[in-house]
Amino acid sequence: MQKLQSFLLLSSVALFSVAVLSSCSGGGSGATGWAYNDSENGGFQKLPYIGQETGPGLVFVQGGTFTMGQVEDDLTGSWDNIPRRVTVSSFYMDEAEVTNYYWLEYLFWLNRVYGEGYPEIVDRAKPDTLVWRDPRAYNEPFVNYYLRHPAYRDYPVVGVSWLQANDFCKWRTDRVNEQIMVREGFLVHNPTGQVDDSYFSTETYLDGQYDEAAKAADGIKDLRPNGVGYRNVGMSDGILLPDYRLPTEAEWEYAALSLIGNSGEELITSRRTYPWDGHYVRNDDSRGKFYGEINANFVRGKGDYMGVAGALNDNADVTAPVYSYAPNDYGLYNMAGNVSEWVMDVYRPGTMQDAQEFRPFRGNVFSTKLLNSEGNVTDKLDFVEYDIAAIEERLTEYEEETAGRLTNEGQNLIDNLKSKIESANEDMDVSRFEEAMMKMDEALDLVEESEAPCAFDLRKTWTRNILNTPGQMRYRDVTVEENLGRRNYSKADNIDYLDGDLESSIYFDQRDDSDDLVYDYAETSLINDNVRVYKGGSWNDRVYWIIPGTRRFLEEDQSASTIGFRCAMTRMGSPRGNAMGSN
């Protein structure tokens, strides 16, 4: 099917050229009557398009309406998932969780591209294997072998934070689109030339900032009278795929329930508690060969993680291979049990009460590409962008935590780092962005050259506060001033909109800009704008948590041995998919 799609999407440069040279291939404009793909008419092009190609690893999830939230007793008494009817658009989702081997492929690429010049970028992506440790259990074999031993290749990656999962999604987008461009004959596959900022990025290519020497062909024939012969592929040509990303909470829950198996003629014939029919966790199809077996990987009861020797019911002590157990009606594996999964949303206990009915999501921070003084997109980064404020804050905290215990060498190192940070802040104050980042890079050099006992801890401060990497485009938050008169939104950060901001607090009449007006983080709650939702149960959970409507949360920079993730992609166009006549 993929080969057929590739053929229909014009699988060679020659086919593209033939298509655009024919003035009749694109038809005529219904608005003006002028023919498309005709240089004598100005050269406006319309290339053939049959629908969005299904990206590697994805399956199509047809959207619709469903009751999101609680379908079972609220055993925790949290009241954070009361039922609400919403609509989810069609989208694509990974057939199974991201595996250890996919993550090793990611680390290998990072090391090949950044390992020599920016090893801190590679370190930032490494999962925390120490999440397996427990003071009362012997889990060192998992610490040492779970990620890299071939026996666990097809098991879900764990120890990955929400931030790391998002970085993986961005990397995957670029690698998939690069493969498509090579497949279609537009790029030369040249791994030896991929160093530091010299690699394919979807955004840099679309912004005309990708290395010309890496192109296998000039591009698509440019039919404009004043054109330069050929042009780059654009998003409007339908060749490049949209971004891989984490699913929203609503998308994940909708996909897990897979009510498409219980629907007909606009009716849901029976609701589901789990991603399968019935109210049992065992297979209740008496006619099937799996009758009586557990449908997912979770803790069956106190101390029972896998059953009795000779009849290991769920066949897994911790995680299981990602294609274990039967898929749900969308063809998705392990939407109950195995590992819990990160989703995009910021956690709020009242999400279900104030969520939008169409494509609900909390976590929007609206941004735009940074422009130069001429109004053009700024050059891609050729250095690492650090979060200076976060590094400075952590350095102060570290100095307080280690007061009286630092060696003289360690204290001198911290003093020198603070001096560098102060100088970097001065550069930022006068918009000398690149100079500021160079100062932060010099500070990291001081850490790496130091033999102070605290140097290892301090290096992690830089590694964990990388905002952007070489080869990527720069963005900025939108401003209130540029949105004056706009009715749908006014500011960039809408994470706490009507739930956590000043207007929703008891201090609404006090013009105070202080944080945590509602959710006093680390004092009266564990909720702030950096706490993310994760869904579903894991190998270490009781059956209650495998119900799709349940929800939990964790800081976005934290990880666990029970949390993994899978990617999603937005469906463009018809919600029915690529069925005949659906576009």
Care to describe what's here?
There is one protein chain. Among the domains are: 2-41, no CATH class; 100-128 and 157-244, no CATH class; 385-468; 494-528, no CATH class. Helix content is 25%, strand content 10%. The chain contains 13 helices and 18 strands. It has helices spanning 2-8, 13-21, 100-114, 119-125, 140-145, 162-183, 202-206, 249-257, 351-354, 388-401, 408-429, 433-449, 455-463, and strands spanning 58-61, 64-68, 84-88, 91-94, 220-221, 230-231, 244-245, 263-264, 267-268, 340-346, 367-369, 385-386, 466-468, 475-477, 531-535, 551-555, 563-564, 568-570. The strands form seven sheets. A four-stranded antiparallel beta sheet has the order 1-4-18-7. The chain has a four-stranded mixed beta sheet with strand order 16-15-10-17. Strands 2-3 form a two-stranded antiparallel ribbon. Helix 3 runs antiparallel to helix 4 and helix 4 packs across helix 13 (455-463). 34% of the residues are buried.
Give a summary of the structure in a few sentences.
This protein is an alpha+beta fold and 583 residues long. The chain has helices at residues 2-8, 13-21, 100-114, 119-125, 140-145, 162-183, 202-206, 249-257, 351-354, 388-401, 408-429, 433-449, 455-463; strands at residues 58-61, 64-68, 84-88, 91-94, 220-221, 230-231, 244-245, 263-264, 267-268, 340-346, 367-369, 385-386, 466-468, 475-477, 531-535, 551-555, 563-564, 568-570.
Percent range for helical residues?
Answer: 25-40%
| Arrangement of strands in the largest sheet | 1-4-18-7
The biggest sheet, with number of strands, parallel, antiparallel or mixed sense and barrel status, is: 4 strands, antiparallel
> Average pLDDT value?
88
Strand content: 5-15%
Distance between the termini: 18 Å
Compute the number of strand runs: 18
Which spans have pLDDT < 50 for at least 5 consecutive residues? 1-24
What does the overall shape look like? globular
Rg (C-alpha, Å): 26 Å
